Amino acid sequence: MRWIGCALVVATTTQVALAEPRGKDLNVDVPGERWRTNMLALGGVAVGGLLVGGLGLYFNLDAQSAADDASSQRFTGVAWTDKRQALVDRASRQSTRAGICYGVGGALLVGAIAAYIITEPKVEHTVIHTQPPPAFVPAPTLAPVPGGAVLGGMWSF
Amino acid sequence: MRRLALLAVLAAGACTPHIASGSYLCGPEQQCPDNQLCNGPDNLCVAESLARPFECTDPFPNPINDDAPSAGIPLAGLQCVSGVSESRGCLTDDDAGDWYQFDTPAGCTAVAVDVKVTFALAFEPVALQLATDNGTPAPVDSPCKNPLPEETGSDVRCVHLTLPAGHHFALGILHSASADCSGRCTHNRYTLDLQLVTP
């Protein structure tokens, strides 16, 4: 009798496995989320680039002002002194500084933009397996009652 | 982005001073902007190709035989209180110095001499000496009441001395041997203003 029960169980299980129906597969693209550290680092580099560029603009304007003070297209009536030469030297020095700042600031900005593109989080491709809608299979119930048993059925819809 | 780069290039390009030839007077020791030289005849900073050597131009003659106190050019007619006697001259590289002679009138109760020598800042400054009654010359120098700022392109040396009345004096304008462009600008043009006043 025990042998028969075991055989029944195996048969039932096999039947269920073979008959298990599958639902539809849903393909979902989940966008990756950028890390806070990444955002802060890129923002910092970009802001740094802007600040260095701003410093370059300051040097540029100062150089231009010094150059304008020394420039002349007609007789000024004044002598070329160390003070005037200092203006030319300042224009040259500040111009060099401006060039360096523009270069560094531009490199930081371009670097930040490139890093933003490179470190873009990948989109995750996920497949969601859905359950098939429940089949109309009534579940029989058997409840012993005094003097016999009640046989019934349950199903959902 | 391209416009910003273009603006930056344009702005950087505008940082080089543009100085036309002849815009500035020469500074001390013939200082001039880059690519310009001091023009000798008018001490103006000009393009290198236009620069000419120093010369004693018309209003600034270089009298000969005035290299000793006794051979100086006489400044006659000075009263106890005189007007300004103006003389222009030129001190060349091979000229030992220019001398001017004058007398203080005998009848003056007190007399002083005011001397002002104005010269180009570009070349060697002059030094002043005074000799009394054909004696040994001695350097003289006093603070100027109105010193000239460097921007004017000129410098000035002054003498203010109380002198004895009825004597003979010689004032020498000589090389100072300073700020002479390492010997390349040992010359100058000058204007001498001399006046006798009450001290």
Features:
heterodimer, A: 157 residues, alpha+beta, two-stranded antiparallel ribbon, two-stranded antiparallel sheet, 57% helix, disordered N terminus, B: 199 residues, mainly beta, four-stranded antiparallel beta sheet, 1 helix, 11 strands, elongated
Describe this structure in words.
The complex is a heterodimer of chains A (about 160) and B (about 200). Chain A is an alpha+beta fold. Chain A has 3 helices and 4 strands. Chain A has helices spanning about 1-20, 35-70, 80-120; strands spanning about 25-30, 125-130, 140-145, 150-155. A two-stranded antiparallel sheet of chain A has the order 1-2. A two-stranded antiparallel sheet of chain A has the order 3-4. In chain A, strand 3 (about 140-145) and strand 4 (about 150-155) form a beta hairpin. The longest helix of chain A has about 35 residues, at about 80-120. With about 200 residues, chain B is mainly β. In chain B, about 5% of the residues lie in helices and about 35% in strands. Chain B has 1 helix and 11 strands; from the N terminus they run H-E-E-E-E-E-E-E-E-E-E-E. In chain B, the strands form 3 sheets. In chain B, strands 3-5-10-7-8 form a 5-stranded mixed β-sheet, with no helix packed on it. In chain B, strand 1 and strand 2 form a beta hairpin. The longest helix of chain B has 12 residues, at about 1-15. Chain B is elongated, with a radius of gyration of 22 Å. The model of chain B has no long low-confidence stretch (mean pLDDT about 90). The interface of A and B includes residues 79, 83, 88 and 91 of A.
Topology:
The complex is a heterodimer of chains A (157) and B (199).
Chain A: H1 2-19, E1 25-30, H2 36-70, H3 82-118, E2 124-129, E3 139-145, E4 148-154
Helix pairs in contact in A: 2-3
Chain B: H1 2-13, E1 36-39, E2 44-47, E3 73-74, E4 85-91, E5 97-103, E6 111-120, E7 126-132, E8 138-139, E9 154-163, E10 168-175, E11 188-197
